Amino acid sequence: MSTLLQVDAIECRYDQLVITRDISFSLNQGDICCLLGPSGCGKTTLLRTIAGFDPVYSGSISLNGSIISSPDTLIEPEERRIGMVFQDYALFPHLTIRENIAFGLRKLSKQEKGERVTEMLDLVNMRDLIDRYPHELSGGQQQRVALARALAPRPQMILLDEPFSNLDSELRKHLGLEVRRILKSQNISGVLVTHDQTEAFAMADYVGVLNQGRMQQWDTPYNLYHEPANQFVANFVGQGYLIPGQLQDHNKVSTEVGIIEGNRAYPWADGTDVDVLLRPDDIIENPSGSITAIVDQYTFAGSATHYRLRLPSGLIVESMFNSHAEYDIGDPVRIEVKADHLILFNNNVKDNPVSV
Questions:
Q1: CB neighbours of 122 closer than 8 A, spacing ≥ 6?
Q2: What pLDDT score was predicted for residue 54?
Q3: What pLDDT, on the 0 to 100 scale, is given for residue 241?
Q4: Residue 89, class by beta-carbon neighbours within 10 Å (0-12 exposed, 13-18 middle, 19+ buried)?
Q5: pTM, whole model, 2 decimals?
Q6: What is the pLDDT of residues 274-308, one digit of tens each?
Q7: Is the dihedral of CA 201, 65, 104, 121 positive or negative?
Q8: Cα(23)–Cα(7) distance, rounded to whole angstroms?
Q9: What is the CA 218 to chain-centroid distance, rounded?
Q10: β-sheet bridge partners, residue 300
Q11: Domains, in order of start, for the chain
Q12: Where are any strands of DSSP class E within 46-167?
């Protein structure tokens, strides 16, 4: 599989304000990646830099082996063969759907334009709406048209800047999977910007987690969830929370909720104070469990209920119970830990290793 996009140690600035520092990652042809992080972390700036709207201060960006951005090079956006789908769709209100999609196809003949427009509308299942105007469409339909317009010139890559943020949650989920299907069917690479980890995990082959302008981890969704590189990633991805413990025998830790043993070994001495990463699915209800917690808060979510539980020490942990298990605030519940992984962070070590 060939590398399509290569980002090497780029730094982006607005005047003298540093927005991103030392960002590096690569994307293969046909893969979809997501830039994930909180507001203000530099996601959109990085996307705009890849598109060619903003320059780089240092480092370089290459597409198919050719540099398209560096301190000395800036290939214009229209020459990069990169499509862009904006958060607000950016459709021309005075043009029909047909005319919006054909807008960037000036070099094609009239017949070729018509064929390409029809092909794109078939791809997004909207041929019946070809002569409508944007204001006559729903938000989801407008987003499909925006995608079709971006795909029409046959770009090498598509950039999507929080494209589903204006849609309701169910439509976001459906449209996200649909966009992934369309890009995969065309073997077109995509770079998605979002702050929604569910969206990122559903759409992307690789996810880059950013914070304060730096790449915290670039990895598969599975590895981000199970092997976070640091505490920021652990907390940001997958509803993680940390409880204190003491390391024993390099691969197990003593905590308030019992001994947790996993398949990772750590280099620190026995008795080292550590923080243990747990997820809601690591703590389960068990009437015979040795730990009694008090329900502090709960949220019913259909097939499961998300509980916040207060341990005897006052520490709060979280768990997902089957929705048939009903507890009210203040009720006692017996629990146990069922974690086959062991993710530890030593607060005395900078840039904690995940494992050795």
A1: none
A2: 94
A3: 86
A4: buried
A5: 0.87
A6: 999 998 989 999 999 889 999 999 999 888 899 99
A7: negative
A8: 7
A9: 10
A10: 305
A11: 3-232 (3.40.50.300), 239-345 (2.40.50.140)
A12: 58-63, 66-70, 73-74, 82-85, 157-161
